UniProtKB/TrEMBL annotation:
Gene Ontology cellular-component terms listed: cytoplasm
Sample GO molecular function, one term: nucleic acid binding
Gene that specifies this protein: Eef1akmt1
Source organism of the structure: Jacana jacana (Wattled jacana)
InterPro entries hit by this protein: DNA_methylase_N6_adenine_CS (IPR002052), Efm5/EEF1AKMT1 (IPR019369), Mlase_EEF1AKMT1/ZCCHC4 (IPR041370)
Protein name per its UniProtKB record: EFMT1 methyltransferase
Highest rank taxon of the organism: Eukaryota
Compartments, record wording: Cytoplasm
Pfam families the record matches: N6-adenineMlase (PF10237)
GO BP: methylation
Reactions performed catalytically: L-lysyl-[protein] + 3 S-adenosyl-L-methionine = N(6),N(6),N(6)-trimethyl-L-lysyl-[protein] + 3 S-adenosyl-L-homocysteine + 3 H(+)
Swiss-Prot/TrEMBL keywords: Cytoplasm, Methyltransferase, Transferase
Length: 211
Protein backbone atom coordinates (compact mmCIF):
# COMPACT_ATOMS: atom_id res chain seq x y z
CA UNK A 1 0.00 0.00 0.00
CA UNK A 2 1.46 3.40 -1.04
CA UNK A 3 0.04 5.00 2.12
CA UNK A 4 2.48 3.01 4.25
CA UNK A 5 5.29 5.42 3.32
CA UNK A 6 3.40 8.53 4.43
CA UNK A 7 4.52 9.63 7.94
CA UNK A 8 1.63 9.75 10.38
CA UNK A 9 1.35 12.25 13.25
CA UNK A 10 0.83 10.78 16.69
CA UNK A 11 -2.48 11.53 18.38
CA UNK A 12 -0.63 13.67 20.97
CA UNK A 13 1.09 15.77 18.27
CA UNK A 14 -2.17 16.12 16.38
CA UNK A 15 -3.99 17.31 19.51
CA UNK A 16 -1.22 19.85 20.23
CA UNK A 17 -1.42 21.16 16.66
CA UNK A 18 -5.19 21.52 16.87
CA UNK A 19 -4.86 23.39 20.16
CA UNK A 20 -2.25 25.72 18.62
CA UNK A 21 -4.49 26.52 15.62
CA UNK A 22 -7.48 27.07 17.89
CA UNK A 23 -5.52 29.53 20.04
CA UNK A 24 -4.33 31.30 16.87
CA UNK A 25 -7.91 31.62 15.61
CA UNK A 26 -9.02 32.97 18.99
CA UNK A 27 -6.23 35.57 18.96
CA UNK A 28 -7.14 36.64 15.45
CA UNK A 29 -10.76 36.83 16.52
CA UNK A 30 -9.82 39.12 19.40
CA UNK A 31 -7.82 41.33 17.05
CA UNK A 32 -10.77 41.83 14.73
CA UNK A 33 -13.33 42.26 17.49
CA UNK A 34 -14.55 45.70 18.47
CA UNK A 35 -12.34 47.54 20.94
CA UNK A 36 -9.10 45.68 20.22
CA UNK A 37 -6.09 47.88 20.98
CA UNK A 38 -3.44 47.28 18.32
CA UNK A 39 -0.86 48.78 20.70
CA UNK A 40 -1.39 46.03 23.29
CA UNK A 41 1.63 43.88 24.11
CA UNK A 42 1.20 40.66 22.15
CA UNK A 43 -0.83 42.28 19.36
CA UNK A 44 2.24 41.48 17.26
CA UNK A 45 3.46 37.96 18.01
CA UNK A 46 7.00 37.28 19.25
CA UNK A 47 9.33 35.98 16.55
CA UNK A 48 11.96 33.92 18.33
CA UNK A 49 14.05 33.74 15.15
CA UNK A 50 14.54 37.48 15.59
CA UNK A 51 15.35 36.93 19.29
CA UNK A 52 12.11 38.64 20.33
CA UNK A 53 10.82 38.21 23.88
CA UNK A 54 8.13 40.60 25.04
CA UNK A 55 8.10 42.04 28.57
CA UNK A 56 5.33 41.19 30.98
CA UNK A 57 2.63 43.86 31.17
CA UNK A 58 3.84 44.87 34.65
CA UNK A 59 7.46 45.31 33.49
CA UNK A 60 6.45 47.23 30.36
CA UNK A 61 4.33 49.56 32.52
CA UNK A 62 7.15 50.11 35.00
CA UNK A 63 9.70 50.91 32.27
CA UNK A 64 7.25 53.13 30.40
CA UNK A 65 6.46 55.13 33.57
CA UNK A 66 10.18 55.51 34.27
CA UNK A 67 10.72 56.79 30.71
CA UNK A 68 7.93 59.37 30.98
CA UNK A 69 9.26 60.70 34.30
CA UNK A 70 12.85 60.76 33.03
CA UNK A 71 11.87 62.49 29.78
CA UNK A 72 9.94 65.22 31.58
CA UNK A 73 7.03 67.30 30.36
CA UNK A 74 6.89 67.35 26.56
CA UNK A 75 9.83 64.93 26.46
CA UNK A 76 10.92 62.76 23.57
CA UNK A 77 11.45 59.03 24.09
CA UNK A 78 13.19 56.60 21.70
CA UNK A 79 12.65 52.84 22.05
CA UNK A 80 15.51 50.95 20.38
CA UNK A 81 14.59 47.28 19.89
CA UNK A 82 12.16 47.64 22.81
CA UNK A 83 8.68 47.38 21.23
CA UNK A 84 6.90 46.30 24.44
CA UNK A 85 7.77 49.63 26.07
CA UNK A 86 6.74 51.55 22.94
CA UNK A 87 3.37 49.76 22.87
CA UNK A 88 2.75 50.50 26.55
CA UNK A 89 3.61 54.18 26.03
CA UNK A 90 1.17 54.34 23.11
CA UNK A 91 -1.59 52.89 25.29
CA UNK A 92 -1.21 56.11 27.29
CA UNK A 93 -1.57 58.32 24.21
CA UNK A 94 -2.62 61.81 25.16
CA UNK A 95 0.06 62.12 27.84
CA UNK A 96 2.57 64.94 27.37
CA UNK A 97 5.40 63.13 25.57
CA UNK A 98 6.30 61.80 22.12
CA UNK A 99 7.82 58.44 21.27
CA UNK A 100 9.29 56.55 18.33
CA UNK A 101 10.32 52.93 17.81
CA UNK A 102 13.53 51.82 16.10
CA UNK A 103 13.04 48.18 15.14
CA UNK A 104 14.32 45.61 12.63
CA UNK A 105 10.97 43.80 12.38
CA UNK A 106 8.99 45.54 9.65
CA UNK A 107 5.68 44.31 11.08
CA UNK A 108 5.94 47.29 13.41
CA UNK A 109 5.58 49.57 10.38
CA UNK A 110 1.83 49.38 11.14
CA UNK A 111 2.58 52.13 13.67
CA UNK A 112 3.19 54.60 10.87
CA UNK A 113 5.65 57.48 10.97
CA UNK A 114 6.82 56.62 14.49
CA UNK A 115 8.35 53.39 13.16
CA UNK A 116 11.98 53.64 12.00
CA UNK A 117 13.60 50.59 10.42
CA UNK A 118 16.73 49.78 12.41
CA UNK A 119 19.49 47.23 11.92
CA UNK A 120 22.04 47.24 14.74
CA UNK A 121 24.70 46.09 12.25
CA UNK A 122 24.46 49.60 10.76
CA UNK A 123 24.10 51.67 13.94
CA UNK A 124 24.18 55.11 12.32
CA UNK A 125 22.15 54.31 9.20
CA UNK A 126 19.29 56.47 10.41
CA UNK A 127 16.89 58.88 8.66
CA UNK A 128 18.18 62.42 8.21
CA UNK A 129 15.29 63.82 10.25
CA UNK A 130 16.43 61.78 13.27
CA UNK A 131 18.72 64.46 14.62
CA UNK A 132 21.61 63.72 16.98
CA UNK A 133 20.96 64.18 20.71
CA UNK A 134 17.27 64.87 20.11
CA UNK A 135 15.74 62.45 22.67
CA UNK A 136 15.44 63.09 26.39
CA UNK A 137 15.81 59.38 27.12
CA UNK A 138 16.65 56.32 25.02
CA UNK A 139 15.47 52.85 26.09
CA UNK A 140 17.41 50.04 24.42
CA UNK A 141 17.13 46.26 24.54
CA UNK A 142 19.78 44.80 22.21
CA UNK A 143 18.48 41.59 20.61
CA UNK A 144 21.56 39.47 21.38
CA UNK A 145 23.75 38.94 24.45
CA UNK A 146 27.03 39.67 22.73
CA UNK A 147 29.50 42.50 23.15
CA UNK A 148 29.40 43.17 19.40
CA UNK A 149 25.62 43.69 19.47
CA UNK A 150 25.82 45.85 22.60
CA UNK A 151 28.68 47.95 21.24
CA UNK A 152 26.87 48.68 17.96
CA UNK A 153 23.57 49.41 19.71
CA UNK A 154 25.48 51.72 22.06
CA UNK A 155 26.59 53.80 19.05
CA UNK A 156 22.95 54.36 18.15
CA UNK A 157 21.95 55.15 21.72
CA UNK A 158 24.74 57.70 22.20
CA UNK A 159 23.84 59.35 18.90
CA UNK A 160 20.18 59.73 19.85
CA UNK A 161 20.20 60.64 23.54
CA UNK A 162 20.64 64.03 25.14
CA UNK A 163 22.11 62.12 28.07
CA UNK A 164 19.73 59.68 29.76
CA UNK A 165 20.00 55.98 28.93
CA UNK A 166 17.90 53.03 30.11
CA UNK A 167 19.37 49.72 28.97
CA UNK A 168 17.74 46.30 29.35
CA UNK A 169 19.95 43.27 28.79
CA UNK A 170 21.36 40.19 30.49
CA UNK A 171 23.01 40.32 33.90
CA UNK A 172 26.12 38.82 32.27
CA UNK A 173 26.51 42.04 30.24
CA UNK A 174 27.05 44.29 33.31
CA UNK A 175 30.75 44.92 32.65
CA UNK A 176 30.25 45.58 28.93
CA UNK A 177 27.27 47.85 29.64
CA UNK A 178 29.42 50.00 31.94
CA UNK A 179 32.24 50.00 29.38
CA UNK A 180 30.17 51.03 26.34
CA UNK A 181 27.41 53.16 27.87
CA UNK A 182 28.55 54.14 31.35
CA UNK A 183 25.43 52.62 32.91
CA UNK A 184 25.00 50.91 36.30
CA UNK A 185 22.74 48.01 37.24
CA UNK A 186 19.38 48.76 38.95
CA UNK A 187 17.58 46.89 41.72
CA UNK A 188 14.48 46.51 39.53
CA UNK A 189 14.35 43.11 37.85
CA UNK A 190 12.42 43.05 34.56
CA UNK A 191 10.21 40.08 33.72
CA UNK A 192 9.13 38.69 30.36
CA UNK A 193 5.79 37.22 29.34
CA UNK A 194 7.68 33.95 28.85
CA UNK A 195 10.47 33.01 31.22
CA UNK A 196 13.98 33.38 29.79
CA UNK A 197 16.92 31.15 30.65
CA UNK A 198 19.23 34.15 31.12
CA UNK A 199 18.90 36.50 34.09
CA UNK A 200 17.76 39.89 32.81
CA UNK A 201 18.48 43.31 34.35
CA UNK A 202 18.08 47.05 33.81
CA UNK A 203 20.91 49.60 33.71
CA UNK A 204 20.82 53.42 33.85
CA UNK A 205 23.25 56.36 33.84
CA UNK A 206 21.07 58.73 35.90
CA UNK A 207 19.20 58.79 39.24
CA UNK A 208 16.16 56.67 38.36
CA UNK A 209 13.09 55.32 40.09
CA UNK A 210 14.20 51.74 39.37
CA UNK A 211 16.27 51.39 42.57
Amino acid sequence: DDDDDIPQLSSHTLAALQEFYLEQQQREGMKTSQGFNHYSIGSIEEDWQLSQFWYSDETASCLAKEAVVAAGKGGRIACVSAPSVYQKLKEWDGEDFSVCILEYDRRFAVYGEEFIFYDYNHPLSLPENLLPHSFDIVIADPPYLSEECLQKTAETVKYLTKGKILLCTGAIMEEQAAKHLGVKICKFIPKHSRNLANEFRCYVNYASGLD
